[in-house]
Each structure stands twice: as C-alpha cells, then as structure tokens.
Design brief:
single chain, alpha+beta, Butyryl-Coa Dehydrogenase, subunit A, domain 1, Butyryl-CoA Dehydrogenase, subunit A, domain 2, Butyryl-CoA Dehydrogenase, subunit A, domain 3, 3 domains, 8-stranded mixed β-sheet, 12 helices, 8 strands, 49% helix, flavoprotein
Length: 377
C-alpha cells in the first residue's frame, strides 16, 4: 500500500530493521508496559536519530525525523510518543553544543554511541500551569554543586531512561530565577520512579512519575537559558518547541493513519472513495513537512514556531474527523470483534492534551499577530 509508504521508507533507511522488529508483535503487546518496542528502538540506534553526525549520531534532518515519527506512530503509538520526548531532550543539547563548553558535545556523543535513552522532565501535565514554569527547583550550594528537588508527572520513558533531562528554576546572581536544563543520570541517588499512568492507552510509553529529592548534580550538567517568568522563549527553547510540535504531531498523524489503513484493507476491498480518509491526514502531514523543510533553510524564530503550532492545531482537527469517520466505516462488527480500532482512535486523541493547548495559546497568538513577542501559555 502506498499510503505512508514514504514515511516507512525513511524509517527503514535511517533505522534499519526497526519496523520489521515491531511488526512481529501484536498491537496490544507493543502498547503494554513493559513494551518490547523501547528496546527495539534502542537496538536500532534510534537514540542517535537527531544527534549530528559529528557526534557519531544519525543526523536526521527535520523532514526525515517527522517522517520517522509518523511511521512509528502507525506501528506503535506508545513508542512514537515516548521517543518524541527523547528527541525533545536531545534537541536543546544539539542547539547548546554550538556555543557551549564542550560538555554538550561529549554528552551527545555518549547518547549516540552508548544508545542512551533520555526521559523528558520538562514542565507539563498540570492544567492551567504555564509550561515554562517547572515543577523542579534547583539550588546552588556554596561548593558549586546543584541540588534538585521536585517531580515530573507524567514522564515518558521513566522506567527505561538512562538520563533525565529536566527544566528547572535556577536563581541567577541578580536574584531572578531563570529556566535551565538539567541532565541527570538515572542512577543518581535521590531519584525515584512512582506509578502514575492509570489508563491502558499509551501505557507502553512508561509515563509514570519521577521524583527528585536532594539530587546532587555537577554544575556542568546544567545548561542555562535566558527564559524568565515572562514565558518568552529564548533560542534554545524555540528550538525545543519547534522539534516537539512537529514530532508529536507527526506521531499522532501516524496513529490515526494506522486506523485509516485498517479501513483501506477491510474485507471487501475497502471504501469506494479512500480519499475521504487519507486526504485530511496527508494534508496535515504536508503542513508539518513544510515547517520541517523551513527549519533547514530559515532562522528558527518565534514566527516559525507559530507556523508549527498552526500545523499542529490543524492536525488535531483532521485527526478527530478522520478517526471518527474510520470507526463509522469499520462498523459495529469491527467494534465488537476487536479493540484495535477504538484503541487507535483513543490514542490519536492524545495530541489534544499535549502543551501548549490551543485554549491557552489563544491570547499569546493574538498578541503575536499584533506585534508582541510570542509567549508560551
């Protein structure tokens, strides 16, 4: 079938054997915790997908990366979501490595060579809270070491992570707290993983709670930014949000695409008009790809991030329409005979719940259109 063929070809080229490895398992096994999909991703070298080649990584372009995520979403929704969070953690390290101290590059090389998985402890998950205001605090001791306290829930890859990357509030010398990115080895004393995810949907992403109590960290493992309480993202955060919005949208477009494939291959030859199910998702993916291509040619500004948000919110509408139409097309007997259709529709709806929500971005987007810097709600 040619639907999503380009995405699967990209996945096979960059991570050879991964799709075939995942195809050996039924969907319910892949989506359970623990899922064999995570170790299959690690074995295929997926940890280094966004790591530049100069640091021994694959060095995927944004366009290649979003195609990989869509292909993974069609095969294993939990893996696509979880690995989006891994890539979200890698992206700011890549950006920081350009002007950093060299520690960032060394860390990127370790991620690629040792196939380390990163859990993302960036702030989200609390309704009404600004996502640039973290749940984890950082205190600098007189000896220079940094002590972290707080928790992140949900936190994907919480039980398979080798490193935790977390947004933390770091007091500056001027007394103003700024956002920083802390990189914490998973075996560091004071880290605890607690059960949190209570739904079977996307359970394979291992999205439990990670608690930090008095976790001591070398200051070189803390990457500062210039983001303060006004929630205006700096270059590192713009890069992170760009990657996140595109990758997570592509992942959920893949999940919805898996449901479309079941309609197209249904007994009887499928629908007379397959475009009714494919066009909306393909159009949404084309919008994602347009921003991904732009990332290779233009400066990564808040204007480009607004384009990414537009693609993401448009995809949410398309996914909702498409999954509803697919369930209706599959019919009642499919609903009775297998949980896969309803599972994929439920999983695809998850894009709506990722930050920043459309409701919270209404005001910031309006202000941006009138000339203000973009704020992240």
């Amino acid at each position: 079938m040619r639907f999503m063929q380009g995405e699967r070809s990209t996945l096979d080229r960059l991570l050879p054997g991964l799709d075939a490895s995942l195809a050996r398992f039924p969907l319910n096994v892949l989506e359970s915790a623990p899922s064999p999909a995570i170790e299959a991703f690690r074995a295929a070298g997926g940890a280094g997908l966004l790591v530049p080649e100069e640091y021994a990584g694959i060095g995927a372009t944004p366009l290649q990366a979003v195609r990989v995520q869509r292909a993974l979403g069609a095969r294993c929704p939990s893996l696509a979501v979880a690995t989006t969070m891994h890539h979200l953690s890698v992206a700011p390290l890549v950006r920081a490595a350009h002007d950093g101290t060299g520690v960032e590059g060394q860390l990127l090389a370790r991620i690629a060579k040792e196939r380390l998985l990163l859990a993302s402890g960036f702030a989200e998950g609390t309704t009404g809270q600004n996502i640039l205001r973290p749940h984890i605090t950082a205190e600098r001791r007189p000896d220079g070491r940094v002590v972290l306290n707080g928790s992140k829930k949900p936190c994907s890859l919480s039980r398979s992570m080798d490193l935790l990357t977390a947004s933390v509030a770091m007091p500056g010398e001027d007394g103003v707290a700024r956002l920083a990115v802390a990189v914490v080895p998973a075996a560091t004393p004071g880290i605890e993983v607690r059960p949190f995810w209570r739904t079977p949907v996307l359970a394979g992403a291992e999205s439990d709670e990670v608690v930090l109590r008095g976790v001591e960290l070398d200051p070189h493992m803390v990457i500062p930014t210039e983001v303060t309480a006004d929630a205006v993202p700096d270059a590192v955060n713009v890069a992170g949000f760009l990657w996140f919005e595109l990758l997570v949208t592509a992942a959920y477009a893949g999940v919805a695409g898996a449901l479309v494939e079941r309609v197209l291959t249904a007994p009887g030859g499928g629908p007379a008009d397959p475009a009714a199910f494919t066009v909306g998702l393909d159009a949404a993916m084309l919008a994602v790809e347009a921003v991904a291509r732009a990332m290779e040619t233009v400066e990564w500004t808040d204007a480009l991030l607004v384009s990414a948000l537009s693609a993401r919110y448009a995809a949410q509408d398309s996914i909702a329409r498409t999954t509803s139409a697919c369930l209706a097309a599959l019919g009642g007997m499919a609903f009775i005979g297998s949980p896969e259709g309803t599972y994929l529709a439920s999983a695809a709806a998850g894009l709506t719940f990722h930050p920043p929500s459309r409701a919270r971005m209404g005001g910031p987007l309006r202000d941006f259109l009138h000339g203000s810097p973009l704020r992240i709600g």
